Amino acid sequence: MNYPKGVKAPIKSTKKDIVYGNRGMDLEEDLNTTNAYYRQIDKAYIYKKPTPIKITKVDYKKAKITEAFFASPSTTDYNGLWQGKYIDFEAKETKNKHSFPLKNIHPHQLEHMKHIIKHGGICFFIIRFTTRMETYLILACDLFELIDDEASVAYDKIKEKGYLLEEKWQPRIDYLKVIEEKFGGR
Amino acid sequence: MNYPKGVKAPIKSTKKDIVYGNRGMDLEEDLNTTNAYYRQIDKAYIYKKPTPIKITKVDYKKAKITEAFFASPSTTDYNGLWQGKYIDFEAKETKNKHSFPLKNIHPHQLEHMKHIIKHGGICFFIIRFTTRMETYLILACDLFELIDDEASVAYDKIKEKGYLLEEKWQPRIDYLKVIEEKFGGR
To answer: Range of A47's domain?
Structure first.
């Protein structure tokens, strides 16, 4: 099929809305729930960006898009504001047990993350190893150092350099707790 | 038509891609060009977010969206990072000569902007009065104070409290110059 790099085929869902297989829906749902909770308690304003779409046909009378295509993302999926600081991250799931492959991340996204780090933003990955039921936060600067020749990162290295995120009732995945410990305090 | 509040009918264009009438395309193009220039000179990483779309039908074999609708934006159109600071703004054009009507701005967007101000982000509007060929930057906190009973803001007030942005070759509209003068210096 003709999906651009970094965009996986959407997967069918039993829900009314269509969901995307880009990073596995569960992690995305967990993060959306977490971000909604952060907003609710006035802690942070972090959003998932809309999926980039190239619209090619519109029925103007019905205000309906009748043809459009998935486009490559040029930035990360999530960004926002926490305690005056710019937050920027990418979230991915992998079924791999022993490594995290970068093939689902578009080169533009990696470039973007390098710029964000250089300009003082807080930039990280949230990576879920679905077969292990483990979710890690790893700073982008740390992950970039671990990329091997095959553009993947060993699970053991992520475990060593990253932070295991526990799953709770709410916030579902309290990733800002890690950020707070590293960059925190007003 | 059934466009959500804050979303205007898309307008037809002679270009291949469809363009949106949400804020008048010229201003959006000017800002996209400006932001691309800022990235090119490594000054700031500010992007327009993708248009929020609710996808309802997909042809999976062809990786094609066959039915989708325009959705209401819950945040502003532009955000990003400049000198370690979180930047967040909304851009609008108006044909009105004497006031800027807020009717094209979704209440969620105004709420969002209030949160951003409170949490230390730099938040503003870029407003173009097309009949006057004038474009102003006005800080969101200043604009909020000027909103009258009819949810509009007088042109004279914007002229007084805002900053006239000159249009140049490049950057097309150097809005960060204003921000630099007000918040600037590393």
So the answer is: 25-183
pLDDT tens track for A33-67: 999 999 999 999 999 999 899 999 999 998 899 99
Cα B41 from chain centroid (whole Å): 22
Cross-strand pairs, B85: B82
Residues 6+ away with beta carbon under 8 Å from A59: A65, A66
Please give the Cα distance from B119 to A84 (Å, whole number): 6
- Residues A67-81 have pLDDT tens digits of 999 998 889 999 999
Locate A150 and state its tokens: 């095959």
**Number of compact structural domains in chain A:** 1
Q: Count of alpha carbons within 13 Å of B71, Cβ hemisphere only?
A: 18
Report if residue B59 sits inside a domain: yes
- Is B57 a member of any domain? yes
Can you tell me the distance from the alpha carbon of B46 to that of B36, in angstroms, rounded to the nearest whole number?
8
Minimal Cβ distance to A115: which of B45, B79, B83: B45
Question: H helices then E strands: how many in chain A?
Answer: 5, 12
ipTM for the assembly = 0.85
| Inter-chain contacts counted by CB atoms under 8 A, chains A and B | 146
In A13-42, the residues whose Cβ lies within 8 Å of chain B are 17-18, 39, 42
Q: Please name the residues between 123 and 182 in chain A that touch chain B, using a CB distance below 8 Å.
A: none
Q: What distance in Å separates the CA atoms of residue A50 and residue B86, rounded to the nearest whole number?
A: 19
Of the partner residues B12, B64, B69, the one whose CB lies closest to the CB of residue A64 = B69
CB A90 within 8 A of CB A76: yes
Within-domain flag for A75 = yes
Q: Are B53 and B69 in contact (CB under 8 A)?
A: yes
Segments in chain B below pLDDT 50 = 1, 11-24, 186
pTM: predicted TM-score of the whole model, two decimal places: 0.86
List the CATH number of the domain containing B149.
3.40.1350.10
DSSP B88: E
